[in-house]
Amino acid sequence: MKLNRLGAVGALLIAVSVHAQQRDFSNVVVKAQKVAGNVYMLTGEGGNIGVSVGDDGVAIVDDQYAPLADKIRAALKGLSDKPLRFVINTHYHFDHAGGNEMFGRDATIVAHDNVRKRLAQGGPMGNGGAIRFDSQPAPAVALPVITFDRNLSIHMNGEDIRALHYSSGHTDGDSIVFFTKSNVVHMGDNFVTYGFPFVDLIGGGSVKGMIATCEQVIAQLPRDVKVIPGHGPLSTLDDVRKYVAMLKDTSSAVKKGLDAGQSLDQLKKNKVLEPWKQYSGPFVNADAFIETLYNELTGKKPADLIKH
Fold first, then answer.
1. Distance, CA of 208 to CA of 216 (rounded, Å)
2. How much is the average pLDDT of 288-295?
């Protein structure tokens, strides 16, 4: 996905209303950027792709949309002549796992248990607010064949590639992927740079869990680790810290309004997130994030959030 703020959310906006196969990806350019060690980042349209290259082959983290598979393959060939061996999904959303159908024919797909479950089932995802879309059940070839509950390691290219599940943040099947020797972490959509995050409450996510995941990453990984966000440019742990502070402060602001007896409409009318207006964007604006926080803090269940 393009690195500027509007580009980072443009594909997601379109994906809400138009199925990926109906879109024109012909003008998308997939670019490679060196991160550190033997790790690169690919950008195109969809979530950032992490890439490990070396004598043992190629492993990628996320694979964007199926129609971009040939462009992604070409970009990988520019980095290594070795075969693609593993695809690690950070979560099940189609802008990160849509290419599974293409890459799963030749590589082993790895993900958290809940990624396989949700890809196999298909159905609604969203936060009960303005953001809501649906997916079709994925074909068998697109499903992860190796799944895990808490963590898993792939030993290749001279390092341990560790997939870690901390909490249910962006979804209930999130993986944080740490390239130990290269000192690079791929955060998936638990950390994005386009502004207020999309939290898939219907998909088992929560802002509280997103905060917990980011805090554990900050506490457990080296201070100088290079951070690949789910969307946006390369970042640092300081960027993640600022992001966590925003999540905590906005949660507190909405909770304060709830404790004062304000309704959802009143919270929006009173612009309780105005101090963080710089995070309001075309994909998740302030009102949408207020609704996400309101739904979570009032204990709305996924079934209550699905609007037909």
1. 12
2. 96
Distance CA 80, CA 234 (A): 22
Query: Is residue 2 scored above 50 in pLDDT?
Result: no
How far apart are alpha carbons 109 and 103 in whole angstroms? 8
What is d(CA 60, CA 46) in angstroms, rounded to the nearest whole number?
14
Distance CA 171, CA 199 (A): 7
pLDDT at 45 over 70: yes
Average pLDDT over residues 52-71: 98
What are the backbone angles phi and psi of residue 160, rounded to the nearest 5°?
-90, 120
Give the per-residue pLDDT at 16: 42
Give the residue numbers spanning the domain of 117: 5-305
CATH number at residue 209: 3.60.15.10
Q: What does the mean pLDDT of the chain come to? A: 92
Report the distance separating Cα 85 and Cα 95, nearest Å.
21
What pLDDT band is residue 244 in, cutting at 50, 70 and 90?
very high
**Distance of alpha carbon 187 from alpha carbon 137, whole angstroms:** 25
DSSP H helices in 81-172: 94-97, 100-103, 113-121
* Distance between CA atoms of residues 228 and 236, nearest Å: 8
Q: Which of 245, 244, 260, 271 is nearest to 297 (CA)?
A: 260
Span 180-199, average pLDDT: 98
| Contact indicator for 65, 95 with CB cutoff of 8 Å | yes
Q: What is the mean pLDDT of residues 46-58?
A: 98
Q: How many domains does the chain have?
A: 1
Q: Which helix (DSSP H) or strand (DSSP E) does residue 160 occupy?
A: strand 159-164
The answer to whether 121 touches 113, Cβ cutoff 8 Å, is no
Count how many residues are written for the chain. 308
